[in-house]
Every structure is written in structure tokens, then in C-alpha cells.
């Protein structure tokens, strides 16, 4: 039979086991949260780089479109003057 001292030892062992299990569980949860936070930061950084790249591409396209518009306007002027010359010749 167990006396008071034996029961105290069993209760102490259960308490220590419970404490160690709790500490390990908390450590695992915190490590998981840290890993998820780092992954989120990496993902956000990649999205930021992607957005910057998209903006740069869009600005390049806008410049090309402006140049194309200017060239088209110059061609329209030339065509107009060519039409006037041709009408004068007829």
C-alpha cells in the first residue's frame, strides 16, 4: 500500500510530466507562429517586388504608347500635306 509519501511522489511526477508537456506544447506553438510569420513576410516581400516590377513595366508601356502616338500624329501631318500636294497637282 502507498503511504502519504508515495502519493506525493506520484503527484509530483504527474505534475512534472504535465509541466514539461505544457512547456513543450507552448514552444512548438511559438516556433510554428514564428515560421508562419517569416513565411508571410517573405510572401509580402515577393508581392511587393512583383508590384514594383508591374509598375515599371506599365510605365515602359506608357512611354512606348506616347512615342507611338507622337509618331502617328507626325504621320497624319505628313499624309495631310501629301494629300494637299496631290490635290494641287490634279
From TrEMBL:
Spans traversing the lipid bilayer: 12-33
The source's domain of life comes to: Bacteria
Coiled coil: which residue ranges?
Answer: 58-85
UniProt keyword terms in alphabetical order: Coiled coil, Membrane, Transmembrane, Transmembrane helix
Recorded protein name is Uncharacterized protein
| Lineage of origin | Bacteria, Bacillati, Actinomycetota, Actinomycetes, Streptosporangiales
